[in-house]
Amino acid sequence: MCCALKLREEGIIARQKIKILSIFGTRPEAIKMAPLVKALAAEPGIDSQICVTGQHQSMLKQVLDLFDLKADCTLDVMTPHQTLNSLTAALYAAIDPVLERVRPDRVLVHGDTTSAMVAAMAAFHRRIPVGHMEAGLRTGDIYSPWPEEMNRRCIDLGADMLFAPTHESRQNLLDERLQGRTFVTGNTVIDALQMTAQRIEQDADLRASLDQQFSYLQSGRKVLLVTGHRRENFGEGFLDICKALSHLARRADIQIVYPVHLNPNVIGPVTEQLGDLPNVHLIKPLDYLAFVRLMQRAHVILTDSGGVQEEAPSLGKPVLVMRDVTERPEAVAAGTVRLVGTSPDSIIAGVNALFDDDLLWRRCSLAANPYGDGKASARIVDALMGRPVDDFIVVPALPGSLGTVGASLLAMDSRTPRSASRYAPSLTTIASKLAPTDRH
Fold first, then answer.
1. Percent of the chain with pLDDT over 90
2. Domains (ranges, CATH) in the chain?
3. Confidence check: pLDDT of 433 > 50
4. For the whole prediction, is pTM greater than 0.85?
């Protein structure tokens, strides 16, 4: 006893590390989890481990390599023509033995994928506390988006730490009277975006290498960047989207770039309807570095992606969302995002307005970004360690130039209140570790 007391007095007995298991499986999850996982690894009081469920194996590897991450456990749950129920069953069967072996003190999941829902429920069944990043997003319709709206509600119900990206999403959680503690952290995707954009800004050779991938783009013609993959748009929705793009392709002053998702429900109709149009460039899915660069070069972005709705305001890019509702109303209220649905007429009108009306484009590109300031990961780590957590700072987007995020990063030091300054060093350290060692 005396020896133990002496060791305590000398500070030799360290607090036992918290074992945290982060579980994710899709490319968007990996992008949003990467800055947090790196921040967890840098925290002395945390033993951080990663389990990758592997829905997007090849695209997932690109993200892990970019952020210099290695999975401690990789699952293989995907089969051809898989239904949601068979995927869910496979995930339960694969994740539960991992929980048994690792015995984490806490499981972290992100967003609203089936892998996130199953991981959270499997942990709940074992009475393992769950932290949910991007908690509180709601459309109010459990079938839109489907099945994501139901997934995130289930996760929020069982999680004991709820990391809401915005004050609006936190209010949704409070309105539902959920038991978990809520924190307003900003979205970790802004952390990932700023780290990646900073790397592009600071490395001219890397920037030139990325631009070489888009050598087919013609100067003098503005870029319409398109992304689309939502399950609820399969079938008629994608046919309508293709009709709109086919019509817009008649404009001589724009060029359309569409990185096509590998899902057969997407690549089939898109290739058939748009493959022969000369100013429509259908390309393979891009790694995150290249995609960020392409977003920087775009004039307008047309998407059904949740992540792009969050990233584009930081780049000063107007976004048209091919959905009827969104769980991210903050950017709609700010003016940088507009809902156009999948109606060809609505898509065509929305795109034409932004390409033809410079004043409208400027208003949209100058709207404030309500989704974070690049310090969400640091706030989440503080919360996990029981330290005080300050709310995120809304950083206004600058005009839509290629240097938007880099300029924002440089300006943030002078705008950051003293109460939030402690968040800056950890992300600066993390960003420095992303210095490119292999530009190819």
1. 66
2. 18-184 (3.40.50.2000), 205-365 (3.40.50.2000)
3. no
4. no
Q: Is there a catalytic annotation at residue 148?
A: yes
Mean pLDDT of 183-211: 96
The answer to whether 231 is a known catalytic residue is: yes
For residue 189, give both structure tokens.
Answer: 């995707």
Order across the sheet with 106-110: list the strands.
Answer: 73-74, 46-52, 18-24, 106-110, 130-133, 161-164, 181-184
Active-site residue, selected from the candidate residues 29, 43, 110, 112: 112
pLDDT for 360-407, tens place per residue?
999 998 867 789 999 999 999 999 999 999 988 775 545 444 334 443
Distance CA 297, CA 293 (A): 6
Is residue 293 flagged as an active site residue?
A: no
Known active-site residue 438: no
Q: How far apart are CA 371 and CA 306, in angstroms?
A: 12
Question: Which of these is catalytic: 261, 323, 328, 379?
Answer: 261
**What is the model's pLDDT at position 402?**
38
The arrangement of strands across the sheet holding 319-321 comes to 280-283, 254-259, 222-227, 300-303, 319-321, 337-339
- Round to whole Å and give the CA distance between 178 and 132: 13
For the question of residue 105 being annotated catalytic, the response is no
Q: Could you give the CA distance from residue 377 to residue 367 in angstroms, rounded to a whole number?
A: 24
Choose the catalytic residue: 27, 29, 132, 134.
Answer: 134
Residue 432 has pLDDT above 60, yes or no: no
